[in-house]
Every structure is written in structure tokens, then in C-alpha cells.
Amino acid sequence: MTTTAPAAPGVAVSATGLVKVYGEGETGVAALDGVDVTFPRGRFTAVMGPSGSGKSTLLHCLAGLDRPTGGRVEIGGQDITGMDDDRLTRLRRDHIGFVFQAYNLVPTLNVLENITLPMDVAGREPDRELLAAIVEVVGLRDRLGHRPAQLSGGQQQRVACARALASGPEVVLADEPTGNLDSRSGGEVLGFLRRAADELGQTIVMVTHDPTAASRADRVLFLADGRLVGELSAPTPERVLERMRRLDGRRS
Amino acid sequence: MGRVTVRTLALRALAAHRARLAMTLAAVVLGTAFVAGTLCFTDSTGQAADAPALRNALLGFAAIAVLVGAFVIANTFTMLVGQRTRELALLRAVGLSRRQVRRMVLGEAAAAGLLGGLAGIAAGCGFAALALRVLDGEAGAAPVARWPSLLAPLAVALSVTSLSALAAARRAARTPPVAGLRGEAAPPPRTIRRRAVAAAIMAAPGAAVYGYAAVTDRIDEQVGLVGLGGAALCILAVVVGAPALCRLPLALLSAPLARLGPAGRLAAGNARRDLRRTAATASALMISLSVVTGLAIFGHSLERHTVAGVGRDVAAQLVVEPAGRRGAAIPQATVERLAAVPGVRAVAAPRYAQLPLRAGPLSTRASVTVADPAALGPALRLTMVSGRVEDLADGVLVGADLARRYGLSVGDRLSIGWPAGGERETTVAGVYRPGRLVSGVLVAQSVALPRLADPAAFAAFVALDPAADQAAARAGLERAMADRPELVVRSRAAYLEAELRGADRILGLLYALLALAVVIGVLGVANTLTLSVTERTRELGLLRALGLTGRQLRTVIRVESALIALIGGVLGIAGGCLLGAMFQRAALRTGLLEAAVPVGQLLAALAGLAAAGVLAAAWPARRAARTDVLAAIATE
Fold first, then answer.
1. Nearest C-alpha of chain B: how many angstroms from A93?
2. Residue among A195, A191, A175 nearest A183 (CA)
């Protein structure tokens, strides 16, 4: 990642009037209640909120894993809300990189096979240079033949990051990527995401409840009760924490 | 609110997981049905069949049925309990003792075994009745079920479910409660090496015995049985060592599979993930397929042997024999009338007996063939090793195998104990090569007939004068035996055909049973896959999230299934070749390598098995493709 990618202008992902209701009629619960948000290309955005605020639902809707009840989601200018399952699958494969909290890797494939899996299933040749650069940065070069079970949790999460980045997706969506890690491994993973945004111009959206993790982003969005309730640029852990306390106070 | 007891837990667990219950019951029902069906079928045909050999063969297949059924049940059960390690660990964490966990799992197993066993017995008997009607139309054997045949399958169902549940529960009870609750509760690493060692220990004597039986020139029933035992031991060793053995074909196949793309690579990885499970699933198929293969080789060899034997030994143009095979025989009076028909040169009506034989210090029982010396040559050809056919007038002729075994040669004295007329000493006048119709000690008819207890022949080989008109002679023969409506005249070709048909009928019966075993084995593959798809929900969800289409995921499961089926097939065919070669050597007294291997049929069976594997994957593949991505990746 020595080459500095140009931070392409424009919007990578946007949601307009996003509503997601679970259940029906009076028993329905709105997990998302009209969210309007844009994620500029090349920026690292963290989404925070108390549990039940709808942050995971937002991420799933952005990824096309969950279908919103109302509103629309655009990825790279394409409206994904009307897509059928096959098109959504291809979209995920070609334009989205995922990092989940746990269970990111296919246990029967080795590290390299895991990293190239999305491109393999698409029948695309990986960009060798980019792949080599990413492998170098995550520090996994001598472990490419290892199985996930032979890696520590932090290493596994780094492989997941490498996989998410390797295909050069429109956006990387990370759902609590450090939730299962100790602080040192978590710091490594966050540093890796940070560099991807800085040096590759990679758009990243990360859901987290950890203020320290959120502070590594360019921007933090705060969600409560399915609504966007605030935004913070150039965050520090202290400011994030303070904002979260206010949110909690508002709720009680 | 009632107290929560272990029984409540067991019942709730059964009720809560309908899919799992259905799967368990399906396995138990299938396995039991197979065992019960075979036993019922054996009971019914065993009574109708005249040959005790057939009944023994059928019982042998019932034993195989028990084995295959047990494999399917045990495999399913082990997986089902294995799946619940976390749930059981939770129960341990909240305070259930190991004993209680074990009792709970055993209770479930017994309930499933009892229910499934009863349903399986009903299904099996129904199937046997159906098979009897379809297969045995002409004989019309009525379905019979004896008590032992009904109780044995139930005992199998109960004991196999309980034993495999116990093994799995022990594993679950050993899981430290906390470890089970943390993340993915992986089963403890399983020792494959220990099984490989056990397999080697079993295979060594098996191979040695087999090798002895393969090369010894004293091949008879005992040696043949020992050889078959050796083959069975080798096959069992393969079953025990299958997890280690599966590695090789998997490693060989994974390179070409990886070239198929990520789906192939994923499938190969899945099959390799739990070698014990892959091996156990493949083993059920392997056992049934090795017997099918052995039988096919035997059938093929028998056919070739029959064709060659009739071609070599039968010179007669016409053969008189009972139309059916049951009980009818040709009395000597009829044979004499046949010989008097104009145009008939000679009639050979060989009789067979097992009689006491003494030669010097040797005292044994030997098979004796009685024939008319005048007919040897024109009706039945005889190849002499030493001496001449005509010397039969001066004593007896001895088969070369008998001569070699007992060290007899021309001029030696031996005595035969006759049923009527006591012991009588005679001289070895010649040694001949035993054939299809003449073997053992050959005695002239004039000497032997008055001394035999039941001097009836089963076939009369009629040689015609070179100038005789065959049609006229045939009409003459038919007139001469008009008082015997059960007898027919056949041409040499028709005789050969009838001989082949008789063997085909018995083989057909066995094939039908074994086809059932293969079907059960394939269903076992479906069962295993369905379970592992349920187990791997999260992984499948991850793959879907990463962009595998439903179709690609289905391909992964199908390829995995075909792979397991193929491994079972290849191992089964290899074992079957061992079995079949020895079987035909023992039964036909031939060399091991003279076995006729129906290569085309075996390759077709392999291809069919792979196709069946793909078919078996239909339901699990659909399930996998429909994995709910969100539910699968949700971090609870």
C-alpha cells in the first residue's frame, strides 16, 4: 500500500428514508425509522449507538442482506432495493467486502484461498499487486497455507480484513470487527482498516460500540431508536464517550 | 409448574428439534427396515428354495444387512449428538451431572430406537412381501416372518442407537462446560492413527490367509472358505482404517476438483473436514458394493466357466432332463429305453455320490461319478492325464486333483464303501482331468449301479449316430419317455441356456437384496449431508454473504455427495474384487486370476453411484442454498 490512491470524489453508499419494521401492525417494531445517510467515497465512517439502536440492521440493509421496509439504498449509484436475490448476491460478491464479528473464515480453506474466495466464485483473477500488498501489510505472508484453526483470533480477523479489501470493493462493511478481540489485536485490525482508507482510498463503514474503535474513524454517526441522532468529525475516544453518555441519558 | 426432570429434558429435546427427530427416525427406520426385510425375505425364500446353499447365502446377506443398517444408524446418531455438544455443555453448566446428561441422551436414543425400529420392521416386511411378488412370480413363495426375524431387527435398532448415543454422550459429558459454551464447540480431535494401526493389525492375517488360499494348489471348500474369511478380514480392516484410507483418494481427487473452481475446492475440503464421518458414510456403501462386486465377478466367472465347461465336456447332441429343477430324476429304466431309440449311439447318464474311500492308510469320503464307459467319448468327453478311457473296464479312473491330493497313481489299490454291497477293492486304472460333469472317482456303471442306494440320474446326454436324423431321433426319444411328462429333450444349445438361467435366477435374487443395501447406503449419504448442512449453517451463511450464489452452494453439496459415494464405490469395488476372485476360485476350483471381472458393469455401477450421490444431495443442497444469511451470521 505504498501507492496513494486518489480519494475519488463522490458518494460510495447512500440510504434515503430507510425504514425497517420487524413484525406487522401494532406489534411491529421499527428498527430503522427513516434514516438518511451518505457515505462519501474514501472515508472511514463508524456507526455507534446503544444496543437495539438499529446499527446492525442499518449495516445489513446497506449490504443487501436484509430488505428494508421502505426507502432506498444505493451502492456506487445503483439502487439495490429492488434487486432479486441473484443480483444481490453478485453485488455482494463484486462490490462489498465484509468483516463480521466472528466466524469470518471458511474452515476448510487455507488463508490465501479464503482471501481470494469472493473473486474465485466470481471467476475473476485477483489483482496480484494489490493482493501482495495487502498480504504484506496484514503480515500473513508466511501463513498463507495455514488453516483458520491454526491462527489466533486476531490473525483470523486480519485475514477477514484482507479478504474484504482484496477485491477492491466499493465499500467494506465491518460489523463489530474487534468485538471478539483483545485490545492489542483489536488495535492492529483497526490500524489496518485505517491504512486501507488512507492509502487505498477504501470506503469503510464500521459498526461498533467501542468508543476507542470509533475514534479511529474519520467520522462517527450516532444512532438511537432507529434514527440518526448525531455526527462527529475528527473524533477522539473522550468525545465519543461523552456523546454516548448523552445519548444514554436521553434514553432514560 | 412441574419439576424439570431429565425425562422432561429428553422429551423436550426430541420435540424441539423436529428436523433432528425426523432424521434420527429416518435412519433407524431405514436401517431396521433393511434388516427386517432381508430376514423376512430369507425366511420366505429359504423355505421355498431347495438348495441349502442358497439359504446360507441369504443368511450371509442378512448379516451384511445388519452391518449396513448398523452403520447408517450409528453414523446418524453420532452426528446428532455431536451437534448438540453446546446444548449439553449448557446443561452441564447449569448443574446436570455427567450421569444425568448420559441418561438423557440414552433415553432419547432408546425412544428413537423403539419407535423407529417398530416402524422399520413393518416397512421391511412390506418390502419383502413386495419383492417376493415381483421377483418370484412363478414360484409364488408366500411371505413368512418368524419371531426371531422380527425381534432381531428391533434388538439391532435398540442396541445400535443406544451404543452410538452412549459414545457420543460420553464425548459430550467430557466437554468442559465452559469450553462448550464458548464459541464453536469443536469436537475433540479424533485419533485416526489408532484406527489405522488397528486396521493394519487386522489386515495382516487377512492378507496372509488370502495369499495362501490364492496360491495353494489344494483348493477345496475349506481352503476357499478360509480365503473368503481372509478377504472379509481385509474388507473389515478397510472399514476400520477408512478414515486414514479416505485421505488418499481425497488428496488425489482434490486437485482436479480444485480446477473445477471454488465449489470443487470447498466440496473437497468439506469431505476432508471430518474424515471419520466421511469414512463411516462411505463404509456403508463400500460394504454393500463389495458384495455386489464379488457377486458380479462370481456370476460372470460362473457364466464363462459354464459356457467353457459345456463346450469342452458335452459332445452329445441332445440332452434329456427334467423341465423344472425340483426333485425330478431319470430312472435307469428310462435311460435304457432312451438308449434303444433308433439313431442313438450312446447315452451318458452320470450319477453322483459321496462315498467312503480308503487307500492304504488314507480313509476319507470322496465324490464318485458313475457312468457308462461306452458313452464316455461320444456323449461326454473325457481328457486323460494317464491311462485310457477304456481302462475303466479294469478298475476306476481318478480325477487329477484327487490323485494329487492323495498321491494316487495308476496301479494303486483303493476301496470304495458302497451303500448296498459293502466295501469293494479296485485298482486305479487311469487319471483324468475333472470336468463339469465328471469328477472325483469315476466308476463304471455296470459295477456301481447295483450298489447305489438311489441310482437315479439328473440328466441324460444322448449321442446320435453320425448318420442319424436329429429330428427323427428327438421324436423317438420323446416317444420313449412318454410316461415321464416332467422330462424334456433339449438341444445342446438349449441345455447350456437352461444351465445359465438357473444360475441367473439365484444371482438375480441376491442382486435384488444387494441393490437394497446400496440404496440404504446412498440414503445414508443423504442423511449425513443433511446433518452436516444443518451443522454448518453459519459457514453456509458466510459463503452466501460473500457472494456464492444459491446454485454454487448447491454444486458444493452435490460434489461433496458424489465424492463420498465415489470413495465408497472405489473401495467397495476393490474389496469386491478380492471377494469375487476368491469366491469363484473356491466354487469353481479355478485360479484366482481366472476370475472374469465385468469391467464395463463395474464402471457403470461407479458412474451410477456418483449419479445417485448427486441425487441424494438434492434435499440437503436445497436446504443449503436456502440458508438465511442474516440468521446464520447473527452473533447471538
1. 4
2. A191
